[in-house]
Amino acid sequence: MKIIKGELALGRFLIPYRIYGEAKKTIVCISGAKQTMAAWRSFVSHFVSDYSVVLFDMPGQGRASILSGSLGISFDEQVDVLHSIINETNRNGTVILAAASWGTIISAAIAARYPELVDKMILGSFGAKPSKEVIEIIKAGQNLFNGNKTEEIAPLMIERFGQHIPDSQKKQMIDQFKDMSRDQFVSFYEHCEFVEQASDIEEYIELGKITASTLILSGEYDAILDQDDIAKASTKIPDCEYRMIPGAGHFLHWERSEILNTYSEFLAR
Predict the structure, then answer these.
(1) Terminal alpha carbon distance of the chain
(2) Which CATH number is 3-129+201-267 given?
(3) How far apart are alpha carbons 212 and 183 in whole angstroms?
(4) Residue 219 pairs with which residues in a beta bridge?
(5) pLDDT at 199 (0 to 100)
């Protein structure tokens, strides 16, 4: 498998990226908050024979660097990073976006602002608005941060909405948070403050402007997303299918690898 490794200097950010495979059809993967490129290993293995798969780390995550300015990353800055990654790695004129959790919000924003760039879009665990459960977890995590108990944040997340992932993935999440720098925790804290204050996705994204064929997936046992809100938001995207996945939680194909076949079936249409 051919792998291209690169970095993009984007203003105050340095963004690492990887391109797996040589196909013209390109899938760009957008991680959830604090997820790194490593979260997409099984996805890459599943799709690399038919697609070029692009991974990258957002500022404040993984190997990405914030070179100057605030440790917080604004919504528009995140959208601009994704736009630049697409322009740098796109091999086919248009791209497919595959996004998880918070990454679905950034993906939907790109698809609304630059509809000519996005052909299809997979949105896994798409949060239309912050739920009561999300706010509770954010406040509990902020209390741990303020009390210098950052080692307890990952176990909190696993207990509240990661209980369905395999033990190996739980260990990966715990190890990731152990390795985070103080600056990365501050960046995460500011991200959580933004999520807490955002009342509705449509304050930031005009869903009706999305032209990409879109699949929204949500786990039956997702403890932090409101299924009614997701279903309602899905009706505002012109070409969109909303699908509930029985037996799955928030992390979808991390929990059940057969969900990758659901993605494949959608992309084959």
Answers:
(1) 26
(2) 3.40.50.1820
(3) 36
(4) 245
(5) 67
Q: State the Cα angle at 198 between 70 and 194, rounded to 5°.
A: 20
The encoded tokens of residue 105 equal 């919000």
Spatial CB neighbours of 71, under 8 Å, sequence gap ≥ 6: 60, 183, 186, 187, 190
Q: How would residue 25 be classed by pLDDT, with cut points 50, 70 and 90?
A: very high
pLDDT, the chain, mean:
91
HSE, side-chain direction, 13 A CA sphere, residue 88: 22
Compute the Cα dihedral for 121, 123, 127, 128 and give only its sign: positive
- Can you tell me whether residue 193 is helix, strand or coil? helix
> Tokens 């051919």 label which residue?
2
pLDDT (tens digit per residue) in 108-126: 999 999 999 999 999 999 9
Strand 52-56 to 26-30 pairing: parallel
Per-residue pLDDT reduced to its tens digit, 37-47: 988 999 999 99
Q: How much is the pTM? A: 0.89
Question: Is 235 a residue whose pLDDT tops 70?
Answer: yes
- Contacts with 152 (C-beta within 8 Å, 6 or more apart), sequence order: 144
The two tokens of residue 140 are: 């509990």
Alpha carbon separation from 266 to 10, 176, 178, 261 (Å, rounded): 33, 32, 37, 9
Mean pLDDT of the 41-58 span:
97
